[in-house]
Every structure is written in structure tokens, then in C-alpha cells.
Write a structure and sequence with these properties.
CATH architecture: Alpha-Beta Barrel
Strand content: 15-25%
Strand order of the largest sheet: 1-2-3-4-5-6-7-8
Distance between the termini: 15 Å
CATH class: Alpha Beta
Number of domains: 1
CATH topology: TIM Barrel
Radius of gyration: 16 Å
Largest sheet: 8 strands, parallel, barrel
Number of strands: 8
Shape: globular
Structural class: alpha/beta
Number of helices: 9
Helix content: 40-55%
CATH superfamily: Aldolase class I
Length: 201
Amino acid sequence: MISKLQYISQGETPEVHLENIQKVCVAGADWVQLRLKNCDAETILETAKKAREITNSFKARLIINDHYKIAKVIKADGVHLGKSDECPLVVRAYLGASFIIGGTANTTEDCSSLLDKKVNYIGLGPYQFTKTKQNLSPVLGVLGYKKILEELQTETPIIAIGGITLKNVPAIINTGIYGIAVSGEITKKVSSIAEFQKILN
């Protein structure tokens, strides 16, 4: 089951990522993506092990960003692949059927390609400008989501991502989108998780 609210970890250091993961799990998050950038593989592995301990104790799902081999080692629930990461078909062959595989998309063509490769969900964005991600793809907004969802007509969960705040959620959900992924807003205020969940459900 793909969660309608996905938290993407943030922090200046791996330790702060883990502190934030702990806080969001306490606050009721049931889906966490560990997204460590600019760290060596050893640091990511050690941080992922600790993140797995935290999420296990709260029965939350843990998704690892990019590093699918680490996801297998620590027995994460899945992996999220960026546009320049390994092909989902290769990753599926490596991980097996039980792992969740998500992929990043910005256009209808991106989504169609990911659907052909049998991903479990698609992170579609950015909704609006965000400082969280470098080399940002063109912003979609509500109209972009509506257009892509109409063109796709898919049962695969599509998750909106990119600079999403509480006040944006009703308009985004009205497009027919399945759920949302949030980083900054939840990191700044973990109590917003309950508010996000209320609107989404």
C-alpha cells in the first residue's frame, strides 16, 4: 500500500536527518524516504541502518533515495529512483518482487516510461519552486497535474512533490492526484503531519 503522505528527510548532517525521521515517526508519519545527497556510500549505509531501526520501531515504511543496493542490504521497504538513476527494470531484477520501486517524473512521457517499467508509484513534480532540489525541472502547478493525469489514465499512484505546503493540498488533491510528498513543511513543523493527513483522508 502506497501512503498518501510521504515524508522526504531533510537535514544538514546525517545525524539531523535521523533526528527528523525520529520526530516525524513520533508525530504519526507512516512513510519516510531517506534522501541523503553529497554523502559517501558508507555514510549512507550507516545512516540507512539507523533509519531502518527507527522506522521499524514505529512500523513505518522506509524508502531509500537512489541507492537500491543499500535498500536491499538494510531490508528497507523500497527505493525511489531519480531520472538519472538505474533503470527500474534492472532494480526490480536485483531487489525482487516484494520491494516498492518509485520513480521521478516531470512529463507525461516520463510517467509513461516509468509505467512501462512497472514502478509501484510515481513522484511527479515539481508542484512549485523548491530549494530542496537542485536542477529543478519545469514547475507543473495544478494545471500541469490535471493535464498529465488526464493523459495517463492510470491506476498507479501518482504523488505530487515539490514545495508543497498545507494550503496547497486541497487544490492538488482536486486534480485527482493520489497523494503528496513533503519535505520542508513537515521538517519545520512536525505537528503539520496530522493536518496533512486530515486533508488527504
